[in-house]
Structure formats: structure tokens, C-alpha cells
Amino acid sequence: MDGVDDARWSLVVPLKPLAVAKSRLAGAGAVRPALALAFVLDTVGAALACREVRDVTVVTDDLTAGAELAGLGAFVVADSPAAGLNAALRHGEAAVRSRRPHAPVAALNGDLPALRPAELAQVLRAAAGACERAFLADAAGTGTTLLAAPPRVSLSPGFGGASRARHLASGAAEITLPAAPSVRQDVDTPQDLAVALALGVGRFTVAAAAALTFEGS
Q1: Do the beta carbons of residue 199 and residue 186 sit within 8 Å?
Q2: For the chain, does the N or the C end have fewer beta carbons within 10 angstroms?
Q3: How far is CA 7 from the centre of its chain?
Q4: Cβ-based neighbour number of residue 87 at 10 Å
Q5: What digits encode the pLDDT tens for the residues 162-197?
Q6: Domains in the chain with CATH codes
Q7: Is residue 135 within 8 Å of 147, Cβ to Cβ?
């Protein structure tokens, strides 16, 4: 029995192998894998510092990233389905439920380098209050950065592309908060990264970005 810890969230974070992650940052050249790793390290570190979070499970086949994430305190499971983002999230959810059958579970993007624990806590409290699947749209308003499910309810993730509309159509409630920009600001493009840097990123991204020069800039 988890006791009072039953109410705290287990998060699932997917991560592609670093060699192919963040392809839209290709202009960063050789620094791109280091940026992808920095993003997920800062995301997971902030999530683990959130009072509403009990644990974080990362689904990845990247051994380098897995070792560093385990060092932060995350659970790491192999992406054995190897069938894309949503399959990885379902696999991670199953791993969580095997440890904590009655846990509330949320899928969180791994590219939120400006993530603040207090803002994540606000989002998770709002999700808990929804009493159903709930999601947070990304800063662009078309994607999703977090999808949450209460105990005994499947995540049923529909990430990728226009996932906001997909999650709405699936019956998930949209979390609408006046703030929490750090939970919305995922990084796919150089422009996204500039916004995240302005918000204030974690120490791993600060170090990785210091070596960054985009081609043509």
C-alpha cells in the first residue's frame, strides 16, 4: 500500500534515441543530441522536484540517456514496442501500473527544459480536479505537453501533430490555466528554444546551449 502517496502522480516521459531526437533542430549540427539529452534531463529533474509527483518513468532505448536519467532518480524502461510515441507511452503506463496499480498517471513531454516544479504542480492539481482524463495544450495551441489519467483510467494517448484536437475528440478535458508557461513550452524548433531560453531553462540546457551556433546564423 502506498498510503497517502497514492494521490501523488507517476509520470511517463518518452525519449527517442538521441541520434534521431529533435530532428527539427538539425541546424544545431553535432550539438543536437546533447541538446535533446539536456532537455530531458532538465524536464525529468524538475518533475522529480515537484511535490505532486511520486516518480518518473522514462521509456527509451538510448543507453547513454538512460544511465543519466537513472542517475537523477528516474525509472528507465526499454522501448520494447518500438512502435512510435503513443505505443511507448502505453508501455510506460503499463510499467507504472505494475508497480502502482492505483496510481494517477500522466504522460509528459521530455522537451520542456524551462519546466518549473511549481507550475507543473498547478497543472497536476487541475488534472486531479477534473476526475477524468485531462490534458494541457502546448504553447502553439495545437499539440499536447501533458495528458493525465486518474486511477484505473487508461491514458489512451493520442500525441503527435494536432494532438489537442485529437485529445478533445477522445473525451479528455482541457486544462485551462492562466499561467504555467513552462509546462506548455516544448522545444521543436530554434524559435521554440529561444522562447524557452527567455523563460529560463535548467542547468543542463544552459550548458548545452552555450555551445550552440545554428547553421546560417
Answers
A1: no
A2: N
A3: 20
A4: 16
A5: 999 999 999 999 999 988 999 999 999 999 999 999
A6: 3-205 (3.90.550.10)
A7: yes
